[in-house]
Amino acid sequence: MSKFWSPLVNDLVPYVPGEQPKMANLVKLNTNENPFGPSPKVIEAIQAELNDGLRLYPDPEGESLRETIAAYHKITPEQIFLGNGSDEVLAHIFFGLFQHGEPILFPDITYSFYPVYCGLYNIESKKVPLTESFEINPEDFKQPNGGVIFPNPNAPTGRYLELQYVEEILAANPNRVVVVDEAYIDFGGESAITLVDKYPNLLVSQTLSKARSLAGLRVGFAVGHPDLIEALNRVKNSFNSYPLDRLALAGAKAAYEDEAWFRKCCDGVISERERVTAVLEGLGFEVLPSKANFIFARHKEQPGEVLAKGLREQGIIVRHFNKPRISEFLRITIGTVEQNDALIARLESL
């Protein structure tokens, strides 16, 4: 605390990012990064940008990248907003589209940045409890609100909500923005982007950090009705007109253009997810059904905190949340075959 802090800063409870440890020979399974790395074409595209052009500002609208993403998803560039990672996109959504006067709704167990944004922008919120099986119940989102947001698949549970139930929430809130945060959608779910032409209140956010292995470039985007996109652009241009640099724009475009690499990586993660799930269940774990690049598991006898500490002592980092309802769970990123084998061996020894 400092006498120079504003009252707002003094009251903020910031987001705590996943640990980025510097341990040697580490098996890092705590921040849901893609184990397979970016397409070689991404590296080539970035290297091609390392020239005198770096003295120039990047395209503030990211027109070429928006055109590429639009073609991929069969939408128009006017339906796309780009940001410096989906976290920045979400921050602009909270600031520009959620209504004051009624609480916005999000699950009680979910991405922990949501309440941080509410505190930053003085937005009232209400946490909607997940079911006993850690699922989103659409009926619980049919109540007065200033907006709705939820990840799909949810984080940290990994559970996926079928599109028919997403539509229920959209139809029940025609005068409020409903945001579907799809950071993990490419690992087995069906994107709600297919619904944006049907529902003008729908905004879908995605990231290139997970399935396209670009967490280090910080590229995210939102898809929705042009009126919603215009609102986000107004907010962006009141903060930073150039959110994506030239290297990020080039790398992201190349990542979208290499479909074969993208599919190979996603299929590899999905295959390993199913294998690791089966093995852990055989070791006495309850593993929630996941459509993400991670699993959420608890042991029938061993406390989650003890397991996380034991793994760490042997050079394996997973995510443990000391929070109500989920303190016995571990969130485990799906790694390479070798990383997953190391995890399994350590768990067997514990």
From TrEMBL:
Pathway: Amino-acid biosynthesis; L-histidine biosynthesis; L-histidine from 5-phospho-alpha-D-ribose 1-diphosphate: step 7/9. The keyword Amino-acid biosynthesis applies. It catalyses: L-histidinol phosphate + 2-oxoglutarate = 3-(imidazol-4-yl)-2-oxopropyl phosphate + L-glutamate. Keywords: Amino-acid biosynthesis, Aminotransferase, Histidine biosynthesis, Pyridoxal phosphate, Transferase. SUPFAM superfamilies: PLP-dependent transferases. It comes from the Bacteria. The modification N6-(pyridoxal phosphate)lysine is found at residue 210. Its EC number is 2.6.1.9. Residues 25-347 form the Aminotransferase class I/classII large domain. GO terms for molecular function: histidinol-phosphate transaminase activity; pyridoxal phosphate binding. One of its GO terms (biological process) is L-histidine biosynthetic process. Its cofactor is pyridoxal 5'-phosphate. Pfam families: Aminotran_1_2. Belongs to the class-II pyridoxal-phosphate-dependent aminotransferase family. Histidinol-phosphate aminotransferase subfamily. HAMAP family: HisC_aminotrans_2. PANTHER family: HISTIDINOL-PHOSPHATE AMINOTRANSFERASE, HISTIDINOL-PHOSPHATE AMINOTRANSFERASE 2. Homodimer. This is Histidinol-phosphate aminotransferase. It comes from Marinobacter adhaerens (strain DSM 23420 / HP15).
